[in-house]
Design a protein that fits this description.
The chain is an all-alpha fold and 245 residues long. Helices cover 75% and strands 0% of the residues. Helix 3 crosses helix 6. The protein starts with 19 loop residues before the first helix and ends with a helix.
Length: 245
């Protein structure tokens, strides 16, 4: 059907132009969306990467300091390499858990991993300051450790050493990690388990030449100390938070 004579058929559809105002509005909306995405995802991602680097250095430094001055003359060949490899694997798992936001319903596994890495770093610093890099030998020369050794034997003495030292490491690491209250019930158990797991290679290294009973007692004491340290620090942080309200 032809247009009536004298009527203007208008411009062809292919030649129609989007008004400048609409194009500018779309451009502004796209840029705003990209900026919002960077703010919501990019910046937190960069912060998590930086935090992972700091914590990774702390954990690796702690593991290194725990073995750097340790005398290896009585160790089997390759023992230090094996322990270091295990530690590296545990740190990779811990950092992955802490910063990739692995979601486990009802469990704060990321927070637990961060506390464990911090505790390992603190333990390494304290271990480097110890006058005797055979830690149980140093403990046994102290008044409390010597008395326990004479009265109850080396396994009990090593268990007490594990409780006292790991309690301090766990409490300091929990305070440094800040107050993030996980669900009740497992909130102290998970960080304590992470601390014990990350300290386990160092305890195994220090226990070479000793009985299985001494090693087991040291690990048990460290696990108990880790739990008490985390639970005590969290209770203190909760009390401070209630007083601040």
């Amino acid at each position: 059907m032809q247009a009536p004579s004298g009527a203007d058929p208008g411009p062809p559809m292919a030649a129609s132009q989007t008004p400048d105002g609409i194009r500018q509005g779309v451009r502004d909306a796209v840029m705003a969306s990209l900026e919002a995405d960077l703010e919501l995802r990019g910046a937190p991602t960069l912060r998590r990467i930086a935090a992972a680097g700091v914590l990774g250095v702390a954990g690796a430094l702690g593991a290194t300091l725990l073995v750097a001055r340790h005398p290896f003359g009585h160790h089997p060949e390759g023992h230090a390499v094996l322990v270091s490899t295990i530690w590296s694997g545990l740190l990779i798992v811990a950092l992955t858990t802490a910063f990739l936001r692995i979601r486990t319903p009802g469990l704060r596994v990321g927070q637990a991993a961060r506390i464990g890495i911090l505790a390992l770093g603190i333990a390494g610093l304290c271990g480097a300051l110890c006058p005797d890099q055979h830690f149980l030998a140093w403990w046994s020369a102290q008044p409390a450790g010597s008395r326990l050794l004479d009265v109850a034997g080396l396994p009990v003495s090593s268990a007490c050493f594990g409780i006292v030292t790991t309690l301090a490491f766990a409490a300091l690491a929990t305070i440094a990690a800040g107050r993030q209250t996980p669900p009740a019930g497992l909130r102290s158990f998970l960080p304590a388990a992470a601390i014990t797991l990350l300290l386990l290679p160092g305890i195994a290294l220090q226990s070479v030449g000793m009985s299985i009973g001494t090693f087991a007692a040291w690990v048990t004491g460290a696990a108990l100390g880790a739990y008490l340290g985390v639970a005590g620090a969290m209770a203190g942080l909760d009390a401070l938070a209630r007083r601040g309200r």
